[in-house]
Specification:
With 153 residues, this protein is of the alpha+beta class. The chain is built from three helices and seven strands. The protein has one domain: Alpha-D-Glucose-1,6-Bisphosphate, Chain A, domain 4. The N and C termini lie far apart (33 Å). InterPro entries: Bet_v_I/MLP, Bet_v_I_allergen, Plant_def-hormone_signal, START-like_dom_sf.
Length: 153
């Protein structure tokens, strides 16, 4: 499922792609307690564990970095394990691309592919809710970066 492109400022692309594992827990600790690299060096093939904050409906999820393009700030990653997948999903694959706009900004284009277990059928509302949560995190991070322009240079 593709989500409509979201406009972001150009200086937000690099930290959102290359340093999200540090940025997310710093900016929204009430949602994400920590993101730890549990296998690899943080590049392609690495496995990260996302630990959700106390009181969240989920405890953790692991994702694998499938592709990371530092030149055009795009990446692909897959949720491969954890209670966020519940009993319905084998995995969720995400593709995130930041593209320049004619106005001088950039837009975020995200595609997600849900791989269900056995005969499970996901409702469109469930997919939309998951994508909306992910996009909301990007918006919060963007707001932080715009309010703190010296945070990443």
């Amino acid at each position: 499922m593709s989500t409509p492109p979201q406009s972001l400022q150009p200086d937000c692309s690099k930290p959102l792609v290359l340093d999200a594992h540090n940025l997310i827990p710093k900016v929204i600790p009430q949602v994400i307690k920590s993101i730890e690299i549990v296998q690899g060096d943080g590049g392609v093939g690495s496995i990260r564990q996302i630990n959700f904050a106390e009181g969240s409906q989920f405890k953790s999820v692991k994702n694998r970095i499938d592709e990371l393009n530092e030149e055009n700030y795009s990446y692909k990653y897959t949720y491969i394990e954890g209670d966020a997948l519940a009993d319905k999903l084998e995995s969720i694959a995400f593709e995130v691309q930041f593209e320049p706009t004619p106005e001088g900004g950039s837009k975020n284009k995200m595609t997600s592919k849900y791989h269900t277990k056995a005969d499970v059928v996901l409702k469109e509302e469930e997919i939309k809710a998951g994508n909306d949560k992910t996009l909301e995190i990007y918006k919060i991070l963007e707001a932080y970066l715009l309010q703190n322009p010296d945070a990443y240079v």
